[in-house]
Amino acid sequence: MVEQTAAVGTLSQQQFTCEAASLVEKAKALGEPWTLVEAADQPAYLKRLVSVRSAVRPATDELPVSDGVVDVEEEPNDGATLHSDPLSEITLEVHAIYSKTWQCPVLYFSAWSANTGTPVSLDGLKNAVRDGLPDLDLTARTAYHMPFIAQQDHPVLGTPFYSIHPCETAMLMAEMLSNTDAADGRYLLLWLSLVGTIFHPIALVHSSYFN
Amino acid sequence: MQGAIDETVAERLWDGQVPLRISVHPADAAALGVHSKSLSLYLSVHRFSYLTLIATDVRRFFADADGGNARLGEVDDADIWFECKGEPLKWHYPVGLLADMTTAANAAIPIAPLPWHVTVRFLNFPADKLLRGHSESMLSMTSDAFMSMIKEADFMRNGNIKKVMGLSKQDQTQLWESFAAHRFRDFWNVNAQLVAGGSEGVNGGGSYPRFVPMRVYVAGCAVVQEPVSPVDGESDHEYTLGEILSNILPRYYSSIPGGQVSRRSPNGTGEVTTFPAAVPILHGIEVPPDTPLVWLSRNCSYPDNFLHVVLRF
Predict the structure, then answer these.
(1) % of chain A at pLDDT higher than 90
(2) Phi, psi dihedrals of residue B26, rounded to the nearest 5°
(3) Would you name the residues of A annotated as active-site residues?
(4) Which CATH class is domain B214-312?
(5) Domain ranges of chain B
(6) What does the domain layout of chain A look like in residue ranges?
(7) ipTM of the complex as predicted
(8) What Gene Ontology cellular-component terms does the record carry (chain A) (predicted)?
(9) Separation in Å, CA A141 to CA A16, B97, B306
(10) A119–B223 C-beta distance less than 8 A
């Protein structure tokens, strides 16, 4: 009754779970906070929290780089300055959730103020990053004339998250997989590096994950 | 299998309505200086409609009734929301589905008292619980949500979105506009092209959809959307709703009449207890479990092309 057919550019749930687990292992070794969220009666999904301030350099001041590591500059101990700096406050939460309908992972994300927990709009998030995350565009449409990014109910939590519409994922992944050497077992990584470009300069995964 | 639409059924469901009693939340009434606090608006709303389609009229009614309350008159449509018993109501769910969910949540009363009492809110939009619209865009957001469902349904049935994308631009527009204007003929002239017959290219235009667009709602759980095939490929047996539900939700549903199901009790002890099987509700009606899913999908889907089935306990 419940069956799956494999088409080019799609991923099975089993493969998703398997690749997600190995991605979390790799992230742990790299000291990056990808986790697997497992709830009763629900398939597991991947989650990562990004502190927007430490992930991107603020537009106003260049941070010193030492030993190839970007130092996060300590804010002066001044409540007013802290409050006026939007970068000090935003947490970006990214989930990769498997969709049985589209047979591929779907990206969900939300942003909120780390201090108050209140949701931050897409514009608020864009304003916090230099050059404004131009790909986060609420007016963009997919080839099937669907909003490329729209708020949706999170399939597990039931609360509003932004999501990238999955109608083009299989097509794009088919092309990407055919152009990639040693793509076996790396669907999820390749997909995350593809879909993650919408957050540039914030990176969801980087080249070390492929080693 | 009969491929034609049963128009009598489709038209009866199309015209189905829910009587609503709408009142302003006391906290918002106080904050906005609404004097006629005890006033209610009685409105019969099509089960297939959306709350965003009535929001402007509701706001105008209370603004006018309150002697032209200017502060109410200035409320942005994107800030209007509705709740029932303290629970925000999702504007992108059809009204009939919301009513069925509310009824199902009150186990003690099998049929909720009518009119259905809903509170309208003008302040403190719960952005952590409801999808947030922006100014002047609630109608286009509702039509986007509606068309997204139709395209997803097309994808589930056929494995691609070619049927919707193959419609002329005018037909695509007509789907939403005839729906919003409640014009049955105009809507079905286009919709029949989507729901009749099966998937193209499979078995030379086979007559069964690949999967049936269906969502199942269980109070306190995530929405269930499984890719369910409506027919046994070997025996040609058309699965019934009862068979599908007991397959995808065995902890809540049993196809044996008067059957019981076992699951861990919700009190956190982890103890496994038996419960009476749930009853599937669609359009306010208990669906006979032996109804073939493919018939149900073709004739009883919401205009967004999905079956939205609520389990009542």
Answers:
(1) 46
(2) -55, -40
(3) 167
(4) alpha beta
(5) 17-131, 139-195, 214-312
(6) 13-59+87-206
(7) 0.89
(8) cytosol
(9) 27, 28, 23
(10) no
What pLDDT is recorded for position A70?
A: 44
- What is the DSSP code (8-state) at residue B49? -
CA of residue B93 relative to chain centroid, distance: 5
pLDDT at A69: 46
For domain A13-59+87-206, which architecture applies?
2-Layer Sandwich (3.30)
Contact B151, B184 (CB under 8 A): no
Rounded CA separation A102/A192 (Å): 16
CB contact under 8 A, B151 and A151: no
Which residue, among B41, B35, B37, has the nearest Cα to B68 in the 3D structure? Answer: B35
The β-bridge relationship of strands B307-312 and B214-217 is: parallel
pLDDT tens by residue, A141-189: 998 888 899 999 999 999 999 999 999 999 999 999 999 888 888 999 9
Per CATH, B17-131 and B214-312 having the same topology is answered yes
pLDDT band at A115 (very low <50, low <70, confident <90, very high): confident
Question: B17-131: what CATH class?
Answer: alpha beta
- What is the DSSP track for A72-138? PPPPPS-HHHHHH-GGGTEEEEEEEEEETTTTEEEEEEEEEETTT--EE-HHHHHHHSGGG-TT--T
| Contact across the interface for A150 and B148, Cβ inside 8 Å | yes
Nearest Cβ partner for A1 among B164, B225, B247: B247
Using CB atoms, which residue from B129, B131, B247 is nearest to A2?
A: B247
Mean pLDDT by 10 residues, chain B (313 residues): 76 96 95 87 97 95 88 91 95 97 75 86 94 83 95 95 94 96 96 74 61 95 94 92 94 80 69 82 94 95 98 89
Contact at CB, B127 and A160, closer than 8 angstroms: yes
Q: What's the gap in Å between the CA of B88 and the closest CA on chain A?
A: 11
Between B93 and A197, where is the model more confident?
B93
Distance CA B313, CA B302 (A): 23
- Identify which of A2, A41, A165 has the shortest CB distance to residue B228: A2
Q: Is the dihedral of CA B237, B241, B242, B248 positive or negative?
A: positive
Which fold is adopted by the domain B139-195? Serum Albumin; Chain A, Domain 1 (1.10.246)
Terminus-to-terminus CA distance in chain A, angstroms? 40
Residue B164: closest CA among A170, A142, A6, A2? A142
A57, pLDDT greater than 80: no
What local confidence, expressed as pLDDT, does residue A39 receive? 79
What is the per-residue pLDDT for A83? Answer: 44
In this structure, are residues A198 and A164 in contact, taking their beta carbons and an 8 Å threshold?
Answer: yes
